[in-house]
Amino acid sequence: MTSALRVVVLAGGVGGSKFTLGVRAALLRRAAPPATVVINTGDDLWLSGVRLQPDVDSVVYALAGVNDTQRGWGRTGDTERVNHELQAWGSGWPWFTLGDLDLGTHLARTGWLREGLTPTQVLARMSQRWPLGANLLPMTDSEVDTWVVLEDGSRLHFQEWWTRHRATLVPLSFENPGISSAVPAPGVTDAIARADIVLIAPSNPVVSIGPILAVPGVREALRATAARIVGVSPIIGGRVVRGMADVCLTAIGVETSAVGVASHYAARSAGGVLDAWLLAEEDAASAPIVAGLGIHPVVAPLWMTDADTTADIVDAALSAAADLRA
């Protein structure tokens, strides 16, 4: 590995934001340039007149060191006076909390969007406030919110299904209206084409990574790049690390296991997007099965307990890519 190492990360959700911290730390160890992080925007929404981008904000706040690590979302030390006032007016969702500092972000974003800036330009402007140590891009500038189709045929916005109902309503499928006509945000496919390594974060494969891969042109760019593509399993010992990814996987017919997710992404040699796959030590026995899928298996500790341990995970992924190149 050289200092010219070019890394692209596909990420979303809290798992993705934690992983980006590890990527930044690992690249600093190697004196490598900052990674380009392509962030899921499939769970964005309009609420109380402002545009929310939960995954974008999670990554920005984490890299800035201002995220609330206890709740797992929003700003640390935030208050909720405006949120209470909105609820008193019957505005918004009473079960969806908007912190005051968080609302400042949403208001700034919405104002810039109303002025004509694209989401890519808005994110570039947001990135100027703090030294983030990464180049951030939305997956697309199009609005492609995620909707959940339930057993009775009704549809809910993903945030209502996830936050209000805690994924207890059985989903039949997930939809991103308009995604078939979306295009990758400026810089996304170029970054993938120029990359040495593409990392798929241990984010929810269905609603965090899935929308990124569904943007027309992204899968094609991944299949065409000379970079090695290494994914990190979000499943450890047959269990999800965080959230309700198992419900999402079941809905699309994928087993909740490291092998199941690896098979879902599939090997590039078989038309998928993976060259290598990091499995947890708890899943070491599955390595031969992953190899049988045409994907190089790497067993490593995968618990992201802090930035240093997460950097070790990233180091394992970077080493796997180097081994494949050699």
Could you characterize what this model shows?
This protein is an alpha/beta fold and 326 residues long. It has a domain at 7-43 and 132-143 and 178-325: 3-Layer(aba) Sandwich (Rossmann fold). 39% of the residues lie in helices and 16% in strands. The protein contains 13 helices and 14 strands. It has helices spanning 13-29, 54-64, 81-88, 100-114, 119-126, 158-164, 188-194, 209-214, 218-224, 245-251, 258-265, 287-292, 307-325, and strands spanning 7-11, 36-39, 45-47, 50-52, 135-138, 147-150, 155-157, 171-175, 197-200, 228-232, 235-236, 239-240, 276-279, 296-299. A 7-stranded parallel sheet has the order 5-2-1-9-10-13-14, sandwiched between helices. The protein has a 3-stranded antiparallel sheet with strand order 7-6-8. Helix 1 (13-29) packs parallel to helix 2 (54-64), helix 1 (13-29) packs across helix 13 and helix 7 (188-194) packs parallel to helix 9 (218-224). It starts with 6 loop residues before the first strand and ends with a helix.
